[in-house]
Each structure stands twice: as structure tokens, then as C-alpha cells.
């Protein structure tokens, strides 16, 4: 869908760690009665904890407040001044004595706080524990609802090798790759002998899109680097290998399922503009995408989700080669950073929908039928500001976060924060590198 003479109608600025998300949208979750015979008890949510920090925590808090749900924040000792703590109705320290990342990964502390303060449901946000099946299971075991897919689905989708096998079962095309994690460099050499170079190494138990390209003469170095990074990031150095598709488009489809077996898509996002395999610009809908290819991408996404009984929000990611062939990459069983562009073009609040689905409401009851989902304009999200060392490269580097600005009304004019911003944190290797995101919509 083209956006000729695009007119910028809405602009918001998001700041990770300290700031807020400014997005204005129409809410179209009209009530209807579903006809499914499956029995699911409707249990309203009264209090939500977000097991995360920064912008995504604030985003979920805002949705909860709009729905009359009380909110609970958790924070590490290093995050006492962060804005997400101030935006919640209640806030509690976790991971005392631990570094910040370890604090937000400390499942026993998070569950303990939730139980002690009558939390009904936990939203994992993105990053940290959002794709950890053991965390989803810990919530269920504690009698606290997990706002996301079931623990079993999180486990299956988190295991990239199993997710690949499921895609094959569902008839979704995949990139040639190993059917199980490789255990040695010799396995990688055997694969390259069969399929040729280049190939790419990816962590078997983690997402984020990062990988290490392997070319002839550099195989051992890139294998060791990929193994070390996977071990440090996910606690497991297991890798799988795929044929590297050169200069592909990266297209992902937003899906949403309920507890009754219903699944819809909310069209696609183009995330092809990347740096170091990390998304920099996200556009919805994908420009100049062949309508037949769009139909295949969305149909494959919905079929895959139905095949595994997927519920709540998720994203199915694909590569599209220069010949227009698409290949499944992975399923992210969580809300994506770039969910905002989908909200802008569909007028559907995805966090509202997540909360309602978790309560037991059907998509039909929320007015979310596939025939009702339409593309309305276009939207783009950019991550133009990152903390980087400008020489040489530049290389991503932690650094102090800049002063926060937001635009309280539509328009690109930045306005200063209406009160003194929280203290700027000291540079830390644990700081979020992308410190600003800008969202724009055109019609």
C-alpha cells in the first residue's frame, strides 16, 4: 500500500528507561458475543504487575489505567529513580544486592512480590523474562496469570529448532538449516559442505535477530563468537545453523489468538533496515509488497498459530528473498518493541487486547474479527538515537541517557518534559543502547 504525499498526522517520542510513550489512537474494541462452545471462565483482572522496566512497563501501566486496573512496578536497587517506578500505583524492590539485569531475572523475588501484594496477572514486557517458559510456568504454579501464551507454547517457540520443526509440520516454508542444535565446529563445517557459504549461526534458545555470518576462511572465528555470545546472553551456548539469505527483506506478521482457538493477523511490518542484525526502522504496512505475497505471509502465520493453539499476542517473522520466496525465521511469543506501528495502522490497542484475552474474553467479543481488521494509513518507527562510541565504526557503547523530550500534542515539535526529569544514570554496560524511538503516522 503506497502512502503518496504522506502527511504526518501523529508523532510520538519514546525514551527507554525513563520516558513515556505518546501515541493517540482510536479504540475499536466493540463488544460482541462469541459462539464458541469451549468453556473458559471469565475472570476480570484487578491488579497487574509488569516484570520489566522503562518504556514498556509504562506502556502497559497506561493501558491498565485506561481499563481501571491497578498497577505494580518492580525495580532494582540501581533503578530507584526510574520513571516506571513512579508511574505505577505500587512499586517494590527486587533482587536486593544483585546487578540490575540479574534483579529482573530473579523469578523467586518477582513471584514473591506478586503473591504478597495480591497481583492477579503479570505482564512480562519484552526482553528479560518475556520468552522464558520457566517464568510463565512459575506464574501459573503460583496462581498468577501470565499475560502471554501458555508456558508450553512459550517453550516450543523459544526453542528455535523445535519452532522450525513445527513450522514444517504446519506447511510453512523454512530456510535450509540444521534440525537440531550443533555440538561442534565440525557440524558447522559439514553443513557448509552441503549447502555452501555463506551460512549464519544463531542462538538456539534466544531471539532478538542477532546472528553471526560464517564465510569461508572465517568459520571457526564466527562459530566461537556466536557460541560465547549465546552462552552469555541466554545461559546456553547451543547454536543452530542456517543458509544465509543474502539481502533479504525482513517481514513480520502480528498475530493475536484467544483461549477459544481463534487467531487473527493484524497485517505485517517491514523491519528490513537493520544494523548489526538489530532493527532500526520498522514500517507498517510493508511498502511495495506484492498482494499475493502478503496473503501467503498472513495465511502461513495464522495457520502456524492455529497449529500450536497459540493465544495472546505474538509475531511470526519471515525472510523474503529477491525472488519473492518467503522463509519462516521464528515466532516471538511476546509483545514486540515495534507493536506501536501495527496499532497505528489498525486502530487496535494490542495491550488492551492482551489483557482482555488473558481475562478469558474471545476475539469476537472484543470486536476483533479478521474481516474487521483494515489497514488505515501507514506508520513508521525509528530508533535514531543510540549510545555509541563514534570511533571506530561506530561501535555500540553504554552511555548517559539524554534529557527527555516529548510532544504532548500531534506534531513533530518537541516540548520539554513538564517537570524535572529523573536523574541521568551513570554509564553502564547494562544500559539500554537505544535511548530514543520516534513514531510517526501518515494517511
Describe what this molecule looks like in 3D:
With about 450 residues, this protein is α+β, with helices and mostly antiparallel strands. It contains 12 helices and 20 strands. It has an 8-stranded antiparallel β-sheet with strand order 1-20-15-12-11-10-13-14. Strands 4-3-2-5-6 form a 5-stranded parallel β-sheet. A 3-stranded antiparallel β-sheet has the order 8-7-9, with helices on one face. Helix 5 runs antiparallel to helix 6. The radius of gyration is 21 Å and the shape is globular. The termini are close together. InterPro entries: ATP-grasp, ATP_grasp_subdomain_1, BC-like_N, Biotin_carboxylation_dom, CPAse_ATP-bd, PCB-like, PreATP-grasp_dom_sf. This is Pyruvate carboxylase. Pfam families: Biotin_carb_N (PF00289), CPSase_L_D2 (PF02786).
How is the secondary structure organized here?
Layout: E1 8-15, E2 47-50, H1 54-66, E3 70-75, H2 83-87, E4 90-93, H3 100-104, H4 107-116, E5 121-123, H5 133-141, E6 145-146, H6 151-158, H7 160-169, H8 185-195, E7 199-203, E8 212-214, H9 219-234, E9 239-243, E10 249-257, E11 263-275, E12 278-284, H10 291-308, E13 312-320, E14 326-332, H11 339-346, H12 350-359, E15 378-386, E16 388-389, E17 395-396, E18 405-406, E19 415-416, E20 434-442
Parallel strand pairs: 2-3, 2-5, 3-4, 5-6
Antiparallel strand pairs: 1-20, 7-8, 7-9, 10-11, 10-13, 11-12, 12-15, 13-14, 15-20, 16-17, 18-19
Helix pairs in contact: 5-6
Amino acid at each position: 500500500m503506497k502512502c503518496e504525499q504522506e502527511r504526518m498526522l501523529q508523532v510520538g517520542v519514546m525514551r527507554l528507561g525513563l520516558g513515556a510513550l505518546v501515541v493517540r489512537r482510536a479504540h475499536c474494541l466493540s463488544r460482541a458475543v462469541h459462539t464458541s462452545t469451549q468453556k473458559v471462565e471469565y475472570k476480570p483482572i484487578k491488579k497487574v504487575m509488569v516484570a520489566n522496566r522503562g518504556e514498556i512497563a509504562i506502556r502497559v501501566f497506561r493501558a491498565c489505567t485506561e481499563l481501571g486496573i491497578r498497577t505494580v512496578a518492580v525495580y532494582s536497587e540501581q533503578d530507584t529513580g526510574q520513571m516506571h517506578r513512579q508511574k505505577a500505583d505500587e512499586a517494590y524492590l527486587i533482587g536486593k544486592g544483585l546487578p540490575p539485569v540479574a534483579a529482573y531475572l530473579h523469578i523467586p523475588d518477582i513471584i514473591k512480590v506478586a503473591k504478597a501484594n495480591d497481583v492477579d496477572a503479570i505482564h512480562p514486557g519484552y526482553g528479560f523474562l518475556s520468552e522464558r517458559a520457566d517464568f510463565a510456568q512459575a506464574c501459573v504454579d503460583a496462581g498468577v496469570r501470565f499475560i502471554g501464551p501458555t508456558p508450553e507454547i512459550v517453550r516450543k517457540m523459544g526453542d528455535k529448532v523445535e519452532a522450525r520443526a513445527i513450522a514444517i509440520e504446519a506447511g510453512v516454508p523454512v530456510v535450509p538449516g540444521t534440525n537440531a542444535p550443533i555440538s561442534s565446529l565440525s557440524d558447522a563445517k559439514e553443513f557448509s559442505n552441503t549447502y555452501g557459504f555463506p551460512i549464519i549461526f544463531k542462538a538456539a534458545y534466544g531471539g532478538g535477530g542477532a546472528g553471526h555470518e560464517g564465510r569461508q576462511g572465517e568459520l571457526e572465528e564466527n562459530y566461537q563468537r556466536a557460541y560465547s555470545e549465546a552462552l552469555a546472553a541466554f545461559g546456553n551456548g547451543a547454536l543452530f545453523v542456517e543458509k544465509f539469505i543474502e539481502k533479504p527483506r525482513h517481514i513480520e506478521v502480528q498475530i493475536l489468538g484467544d483461549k477459544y482457538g481463534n487467531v487473527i493477523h493484524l497485517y505485517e511490518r517491514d523491519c528490513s533496515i537493520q544494523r548489526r542484525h538489530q532493527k532500526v526502522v520498522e514500517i507498517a504496512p510493508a511498502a511495495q509488497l506484492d498482494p499475493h505475497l502478503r496473503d501467503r505471509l498472513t495465511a502461513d502465520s495464522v495457520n502456524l498459530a492455529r497449529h500450536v493453539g497459540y493465544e495472546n499476542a505474538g509475531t511470526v517473522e519471515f525472510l523474503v528473498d529477491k525472488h519473492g520466496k518467503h522463509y519462516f525465521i521464528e515466532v516471538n511469543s511476546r509483545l514486540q518493541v515495534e507493536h506501536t506501528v501495527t496499532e497505528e495502522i489498525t486502530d487496535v490497542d494490542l495491550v488492551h487486547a492482551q489483557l482482555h484475552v488473558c481475562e478469558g474474553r474471545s476475539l469476537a467479543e472484543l470486536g476483533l474479527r479478521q474481516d474487521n481488521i483494515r489497514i488505515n494509513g501507514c506508520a513508521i518507527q525509528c530508533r535514531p538515537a543510540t549510545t555509541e562510541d563514534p570511533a571506530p565504526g561506530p561501535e555500540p557503547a553504554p552511555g548517559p541517557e539524554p534529557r527527555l523530550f516529548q510532544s504532548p500534542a500531534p506534531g513533530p515539535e518537541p516540548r520539554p518534559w513538564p517537570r524535572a526529569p529523573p536523574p541521568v544514570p551513570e554509564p553502564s554496560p547494562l544500559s539500554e543502547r537505544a535511548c530514543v524511538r520516534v513514531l510517526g503516522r501518515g494517511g
